[in-house]
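$ fold --in a.seq
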Amino acid sequence: MESSERTGPPARIRIMGRALNATLARAPWLWPLMRAPMTRFFDSSARGWDDRTGAGSPQHLAPLAAAALHVAEPPERVIDIGTGTGEGALLLAREFPRASVRGIDISEEMIRAAQAKVGLDPEGRIAFRVADAASLPYPDESFDLVAQLNMPPFFAEIARVLRPGGSVIVAASWGAATPFYTPEPVLERGFRRRRVETVTTGTVQAGTYYVGRRARRPSP
């Protein structure tokens, strides 16, 4: 919807999302209490999600695309956390055509919609699966790039699956008007505690983005 793309979600949704996001950023151990209602919400919202939210539109994806330009080394393995209907993962697959891209979301219905967009992919370069952002089903140091668009950051889990020297992107389509928006100081502090330093932050159209990089291991 054009009005949603220009101004962001309604105030009620924005306020609820910001409160939830702030809670998870500071007290991620509360997530198990929220997981089931959040899953039900997104399962019930999946049908028509792209049309209602403008997901996949240039404005919706602009901050993610802008942040990708600051990834210094082309990644081999990419994960899009909270992929929803997959538009962010598909954009990253286009930006990094040699990368293996994985998209995860807690909602089975969202993942079903994302999978329908992949089409024929005999090499399996792009794949989607149902998974919890607070407990990713991947080994430590699995990805060169961990990205998320309009999602609360689970700092510890992002750092766990990020390889040394790898990059992190946290983008918000409508900046501070995004329901799941994390202020820049919170992102910088949360990632710094896990040896992920800020590379850059920026704004594009109505959106904002943060790019960080995990420190490489010292040479022997």
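$ fold --in b.seq
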Amino acid sequence: MYAVVRTGGKQYRVAPGDWLEVEKLAGEVGQQITLDDVLLVHNGEQVVIGQPIVQGAKVTATVKAQHKGKKVIVFKYRPKQRYRVKKGHRQNLTRLQIDAIEM
């Protein structure tokens, strides 16, 4: 069984037992959260596609960590203009473990 969920403006394919890193969600480590934005559910023999979401479907997950991702360097450069700008960004992430998919 698997589902496609939408969180943080992105879509993820998840199954029970999977680990997933998404953009920061509110919640403490060890807390269980519910992802209600389920776009598709496949239970082995039947595929249910939402329009846009599957009614009554939800994915429960446990928050395993709240941390920052790797640093991304943004460097802008214009030759012969003495223009150089270096910026860095570290995205706040939430690591989830998928517990169950309910229809």
